[in-house]
Amino acid sequence: MGKRSGYLNLLGVCAAPLVGACSAPTAPSPAAVMLGAWSYASAPIGDHAPSLNTGLHVTVTVDAVEGASFSGQVSRWIAGDVGIAPDQFGPVTGRVDDAGGVTLFIPQATPGPILAIRGSLNGDVLTVHESWSGAEPGPFPSGGTFRRSP
Predict the structure, then answer these.
(1) Is 20 exposed, middle or buried (0-12, 13-18, 19+ CB in 10 A)?
(2) Euclidean distance between CA atoms 106 and 116, whole angstroms
(3) What are the residue boundaries of the structural domains of the chain, listed by start?
């Protein structure tokens, strides 16, 4: 019996680390649905060809999540034929709510109004409901879409 209890003790010591490893998996962060590069492209203004005005092209890359919050950076901003360097923007932040709603904030690198976007997420498409910068309307019209790059 002494030998058998020794084996059981050894088995208990070896099995104890495995019991902790078998705990229930943790749920992914709700904001994980925002990870990736999200691109917006408006239709060109005017129908005269050729034109330098290619509309507004913006890419926001989300690379960090914690709970319902996410963060990232602007990686492309082109308005017409004018590009704005990504370092002219501060860190992008946002939140995802329980109903698939998304609020996104894009600050300037220097003090100024923060661009805010409120929309809804459906798979790889974020549909804009409203955007604003301070008291002014933002550049993204209601119904515009950001699409996640594959």
Answers:
(1) exposed
(2) 6
(3) 30-148
- What b-and-e string marks burial along 52-70, b requiring 16 or more CB atoms within 10 Å of the CB? eeeebebbbbbeebeeeeb
Answer whether residue 139 shows pLDDT above 80: yes
Task: Say what the alpha-carbon torsion angle 112, 113, 114, 118 is, to the nearest 10 degrees.
Answer: -170
In the predicted model, what is the mean pLDDT of residues 85-97?
Answer: 97
Q: Which CATH architecture has domain 30-148?
A: Beta Barrel (2.40)
pLDDT tens per residue, range 13-41: 444 444 445 555 666 788 999 999 999 99
Name the one residue in this structure whose structure tokens are 């050729």.
Answer: 50
* CA–CA gap between residue 77 and residue 129 (Å, rounded): 20
- What pLDDT sits at residue 75? 97
